[in-house]
Amino acid sequence: MICDLCKSDKNVSSYKVEPKEEMVNLCETCLEQIESGNLDENHFNCLNDSMWSENSAVKVLTYRLLKKLWRNDLLDMMYMEDDELAWAEAEQEELRDSNWNILKTWDSVSVIKDLDVKWAWKTLKKWTTIKNIKACEVPWHVACKVDWFWNLYLKVEFLKKI
Question: Is the pTM of this model over 0.85?
Fold first, then answer.
């Protein structure tokens, strides 16, 4: 078995391409980088070849990685059927805090620096604990409420998961 992306044969395992049930084969290096979110662009030069795969799951994963690497030059050359493109765009972006921990709905977080809250004329103090955050429609933000303000949207980069 070889990696569908980089063609390595070291510690290859199956990886499910969400939200469908289709699997791709990934080596230990590709899998570790994809799961951690720390993508090494030099390692992923292999995407130049995998973008032409006939396997839809490989194309979808390649598309997502190219997008994260800001490789619009390759994305512009890539051909995908409408259903493949819809699948690739259906990926849920994971919200990650300042320490790169995954944030989920109902998690508790603390604020890592003083934040001035527009329209409230107040400051949200450093280390304030906020319970029951929710993912929202604003990219890279969470919706929450504090004692003195409802419907507060905070950037995840200023939060730390508790």
Answer: no
Q: Most distant CA pair in the chain: distance in Å?
A: 60
| Structural domain range at position 49 | 13-89
CB 153 within 8 A of CB 136: yes
Same domain, 99 and 75: no
Q: What is the mean pLDDT of residues 37-48?
A: 91
Specify the number of domains making up the chain.
2
| Ordered alpha helix ranges (H), 99-154 | none
Query: What is the Cα–Cα distance from 46 to 11, expressed in whole angstroms?
Result: 17
**Residue 19, preceding bond cis, omega within 30 degrees?**
yes
Give yes or no: residues 84 and 104 share one domain. Answer: no
